[in-house]
Amino acid sequence: MALMTSATVLSSVYAQTVQTAETKKPAWDLSVGLGLTLTRGNSDTLLFNANALAQKKWGPHELSFGADGAYGENNSVKNVESVRGFGQYNRLITDRFYAYGRAEAMHDAIADVQYRVTLSPGVGYYFIKTDRTRLSGEFGPGYVIEKLGSQTHDFFTLRFAEKFEHKFNDRAKLWESVEFLPQVDNFDNYLITAELGVEASMTKKISLRTYLQDIYDNEPAPKRKKNDLKLVAGVGYKFL
């Protein structure tokens, strides 16, 4: 009888442990990156950049937030001032097909973008979904509210997006993304945002990361260029 009672208790404890492990939500995957370039003497320049990414996946849910910013001066004259942030929630309908909601905001003083806010719901599909490689495509309607210089605009868009990430091993990865936002009633007004980056770990927490970001606005603020290209290199830190 004592043996049966002990076995029953152990079985109950084991079942509770398994259930707790299954229902416990995983922690956030959080990383930050910093870069600084400073010169004095024949040239007097300052360039600072920072970025952060937080992701969480549990069950059919995928949640991500990201932000990046940069500030620079050349001979005490500001030549870089930008900040951008986004949040996205994915709800898996099948193992590969999902619905999403996304919000993004940005400011770029040099491009005279006082603010630009983009809201977009839609659907996505993982064409490749393995432990090391992920390739997805997204499509949906969108709404943009922006202030370029002294002029404020708002309009409906379509959103076409593609994302790719590949981990060569536990220490190195490559990522790439492209987003195309054409205005629904004026396809000459569109935005393209593209990014290509690599990251290599030096320790479990510290890595070196470099990425190239390109933002193309076919109808920019008055007296501003259409294309802005940014190359960022810095050190990343991952919270474990």
How would you describe the overall organization of this protein?
It is a single chain. The protein has one helix at residues 2-23; strands spanning 29-39, 45-58, 61-74, 77-92, 97-108, 113-129, 133-148, 151-167, 172-183, 186-201, 206-217, 227-239. It has 240 residues and is mainly beta. It has a single domain (29-239), classed as Porin, CATH 2.40.160. It has a twelve-stranded antiparallel barrel. The longest helix is centred in the first third of the chain and has 22 residues, at 2-23. The protein is flat and about 55 Å long. The model is unreliable at 1-7 (pLDDT under 50).
What are the main properties of this structure?
240 residues, Porin, 71% strand, disordered N terminus, 9% helix, flat
* Main structural class: mainly beta
The major sheet is characterized as: 12 strands, antiparallel, barrel
Spatial strand sequence of the major β-sheet: 1-2-3-4-5-6-7-8-9-10-11-12
Measured between the Cα atoms of the first and last residue, the distance is 46 Å
How many distinct helices?
1
Report helical residue fraction. Answer: under 10%
Let me know the number of strands.
12
Shape category:
flat
Order of helices and strands: HEEEEEEEEEEEE
Q: Name the CATH class.
A: Mainly Beta
Rg computed from alpha carbons, rounded to a whole number of angstroms:
23 Å
| Residue share in β-strands | over 45%
How many domain regions?
1
Gross CATH architecture? Beta Barrel
Low-pLDDT stretches: 1-7
Say what the CATH topology is: Porin
The CATH homologous superfamily is termed monomeric porin ompg
